[in-house]
Amino acid sequence: MLTVKKKDKVVVLCGKDKGKSGEVLDVFPDKGRVIVSKINFVKRHTKPTRTDAGGIFEKEGPIAISKVMLVCPKCDKASRSKFDKFSDGKKVRVCRKCGELIV
Ligand SMILES: [Zn+2]
């Protein structure tokens, strides 16, 4: 079950970007990976084309979903969100710290 989605604020739990936070830019559910703004920069080399001079630029690389934790927008604390079921069968994310719904 995916616990993060686009536009979520997350904090990185391990690796070189440990402790940094950013916004989820993209989610790849089948690969279990996410792309987070300003996190896990990887260098890309591009060849010059007619419209582009080429060179080296940095771009966010995907990281494992298990390495990030959702930050509650209400209490601003990192929290493993849990899923609660509504009466209509809809699953919603709830902050474990403050009990607030995370939309
Ligand atoms: Zn909270």
Q: Can you describe this structure in just a few lines?
A:
With 103 residues, this protein is mostly beta strands.
Please describe what this structure looks like.
The chain has strands spanning 9-12, 21-28, 33-36, 41-46, 55-60, 63-64, 68-70, 82-85, 91-94, 101-102. The chain is mainly beta and 103 residues long. The strands form three sheets. A five-stranded antiparallel beta sheet has the order 6-3-2-1-7, with no helix packed on it. It has a three-stranded antiparallel beta sheet with strand order 8-9-10, with no helix packed on it. The model has no long low-confidence stretch (mean pLDDT 90). It binds zinc ion. Residues 72, 74-75, 77, 79, 95, 97-98, 100 line the site of zinc ion. Zinc ion (ZN) is lined by residues 72, 74-75, 77, 79, 95, 97-98, 100.
String of helices and strands:
EEEEEEEEEE
Query: What structural class do helix, strand and pairing data support?
Result: mainly beta
Average of pLDDT: 90
* Largest sheet composition: 5 strands, antiparallel
List the helices and strands and how they pair.
Blueprint: E1 9-12, E2 21-28, E3 33-36, E4 41-46, E5 55-60, E6 63-64, E7 68-70, E8 82-85, E9 91-94, E10 101-102
Antiparallel strand pairs: 1-2, 1-7, 2-3, 3-6, 4-5, 8-9, 9-10
The structure holds zinc ion.
